[in-house]
Amino acid sequence: MSDSDILQVNHVTKLYPNGIKGLDDISFNVKRGEFIAVVGLSGAGKSTLFRSINRMQDITNGEIFINGTDISKLKGKELRHFRRKIGMIFQSFNLVNRLTVQKNVLSGRVGYYPTWKTILGLYSKEDKEKAVRSLDHVNMLKKLYDRADSLSGGQMQRVAIARTMMQEPDLVLADEPVASLDPKTSEGVMKDLRNLNVKDHDTVLVNLHSIDLALEFADRIIGIRDGKLVFDKAAAQSTPDDLKEIYEGGNS
Length: 252
Ligand SMILES: Nc1ncnc2c1ncn2[C@@H]1O[C@H](COP(=O)(O)OP(=O)(O)OP(=O)(O)O)[C@@H](O)[C@H]1O
Hints:
Low-confidence stretches: none
Distance between the termini: 27 Å
Number of helices: 9
Largest sheet: 6 strands, mixed
Shape: globular
CATH architecture: 3-Layer(aba) Sandwich
CATH class: Alpha Beta
Radius of gyration: 18 Å
Bound molecules: adenosine-5'-triphosphate
Number of domains: 1
Mean pLDDT: 91
Number of strands: 10
CATH topology: Rossmann fold
């Protein structure tokens, strides 16, 4: 692992209790600041990969290092500290509907406060200012005091991106962030995600169904089929034809 690597996935296998291999001896490294699209058919193992990287589930074999730390060894407080540095963005946005945009964005800081303070909404002035800046970044400042459930899908995802910025994450995992959005809105959300990477220098891994979006926005494309890594190339050197190998059977 070189100093510039933030993530190292080393011969990782995930065997589910029903005998299905969600991941099958998968290895790759990610450099700090990279924007990587992970693509593959439904059931290929993309979500399993993300759940393994953020320790939502344990792997069966192999190792995952983040910033040089073997994450399988983390427990209790160390695990909580690790999690607050992993930004998660979901297809379903995961905002709290009845709360304002401001409160949703501030909740990105919960890992940095004792629980009682977050329940009472006692966030620092610095964090409130940071929330304003984060919302400004994604062009959502005008909605600061609106309820989350009054927003469109694209606006909700922008707020989720602003919430992730609040975490000052080492690594952002975006799991199908545009799957429920129309093509035009998807482009806008992908631009905001890319900005997170360019302006904040965050490392971003994004699961995508759309090859076009992967080619347009990612630095590098990783393809998974049947839990195995079948493609790993710079986007600039990949063509739609190349990417067929991710979707068509092979002998592997
Ligand atoms: N909790 C589980 N128990 C058993 N099998 C599972 C579990 N989660 C996923 N799998 C299986 O592991 C394989 C990989 O699933 P995964 O959800 O990681 O794929 P995916 O590429 O994210 O698919 P999608 O694009 O549909 O979300 C699939 O065969 C799936 O059925």
